[in-house]
Amino acid sequence: MASKSWLNHQVTLMLLFITWRESMHCNGLTVDPPQDLVISDPGHLGHLLITWSPPASLINREECAILYQLEYFDTYSNSWSAVRTPRRMYSAQFDLMKDVTVRVYTFLSGPCTNGTMIKSKSYTEVIQKPLSTGVVGSAVQDIVCVYHNMKYVECSWGKSPKMPDNSQQTLYFWHKELEQAEECPKYLYSSGARSGCNFSGKSLPEFTNINFCVNGSSSEGPLKPTFISLQIQNQVKPETTEKLHLQTGPDMQLELHWDGPSGRIPGHCLEWEVEQNQEGSDGKISSQKISIKQTSLTLPSIHENQRQCFRVRSRLHKYCADKSFWSEWSRLTCHPVDRGGGRNNTPQTPRGKQAKTQAIRAPNSPQNTTDPTPRSPETATRPTQGGTSKGTQRQHPPGRGKPTDGQGTGGPAAQPKATNPGTI
């Protein structure tokens, strides 16, 4: 009897579900995707504005709530990002040297759907291609921005081998506190050509994306623009340690200590690397790097016939910044002092003999003891696409291709002009 009752209950639920589905079908209730999907470039070097309109079939339907789900492909993480909102606009950062792909769905719920959330089966989409303007191979290379001891920012770039002669580069930057992009306040020069920008007289905000574009002009035409976006608290390079203090302690132990950099960098945010070079009585030199968190180091007892030299450098550890640059190495301090006259020089490797190098880690110190050199930050490059783009409705996820004309076209995108940052 219990089994028969359960079966009747299941059948009743199934019939109710079928009846509800038929009622929905008979009432003709379907949800269309949004329309008039547009991508606009306000000149913020990759920070784009996305707008759309509700489907015409829902304009006069006031008894139900309308939501939208915006999806866009994040080329920095190589994955889709999604946001659900009742608004009909959204802004996001894009890498404009790659395809910009955006799609929007409609969601409907309320009395008209019997309280059920219904999603449109199709979506409206825009695929906007990067522009190919500019002399081929003329884009600058390896843009690097460094936040020197959290005092000022300096950006530099390299010259492309194919860059036309007599080219002039121009840097623009934008962040959310600016209405429009601005030009570099003070250029740096190398061999008579612009090679960087100094922001020592310009305050840049921390913990917010700052977009940079380097373009320019030449006798052969405009240079291809290059874009990066970064947060300056992740670009810190501490000051070089000025002086190491080295002394012998009990049992002939070597005690090394130093002061951290002055300024705004919290001491607890720094990790240190100590390089120890040891010269034996036979003239052979061994070298090791020790990672520690404090500004002092005690080493085991030494022999009278051994000479040891030390230098240190620092950077922000992973708990205070996503990444950081190593400071420059301090000057060497040796014990005993140079036998030739007291100079703190690195022991020289005897001719024909090879120095041994190893890296070790002090207790409770970070795992990373590598010796990276400052390199271009792993920041996503974010080019500018001018103009607007509209979307076209699709029934299935699209492949790559040109945006459709009129109802889904990425309109002509104006790249930044070297003479007018307001039109970037």
Q: Give the distance, in angstroms, between the N- and C-terminal Cα atoms.
A: 77 Å
Radius of gyration: 31 Å
- Low-pLDDT segments: 1-27, 341-386, 391-424
What's the total helix number?
Answer: 1
Description:
- The chain has 424 residues and is mainly beta.
- Helix content is 6%, strand content 38%.
- The protein has one helix at residues 2-27; strands spanning 35-40, 47-53, 65-74, 79-85, 89-93, 100-109, 118-119, 123-128, 141-148, 152-158, 168-174, 182-183, 187-190, 193-198, 210-218, 221-222, 226-230, 236-237, 244-248, 253-258, 270-279, 285-292, 296-301, 307-316, 333-335, 356-361, 392-394.
- Strands 3, 4, 6, 7, 8 and 27 form a 6-stranded antiparallel sheet that branches. Strands 13-14-10-9-18 form a 5-stranded mixed sheet, with no helix packed on it.
- Strand 9 and strand 10 form a beta hairpin.
- The N and C termini lie far apart (77 Å).
Chart the SSEs and their pairings.
Layout (H helix, E strand, L loop, with lengths): L1 H26 L7 E6 L6 E7 L11 E10 L4 E7 L3 E5 L6 E10 L8 E2 L3 E6 L12 E8 L3 E7 L9 E7 L7 E2 L3 E4 L2 E6 L11 E9 L2 E2 L3 E5 L5 E2 L6 E5 L4 E6 L11 E10 L5 E8 L3 E6 L5 E10 L16 E3 L20 E6 L30 E3 L30
Parallel strand pairs: 9-18, 22-26
Antiparallel strand pairs: 1-2, 2-5, 3-4, 3-6, 6-7, 6-8, 8-27, 9-10, 10-14, 11-12, 11-15, 13-14, 15-16, 15-17, 19-20, 20-23, 21-22, 21-24, 24-25
Concise synopsis of the structure shown:
The protein is built from one helix and 27 strands. The chain has 424 residues and is mainly beta. Residues 1-27, 341-386 and 391-424 have low confidence and may be disordered.
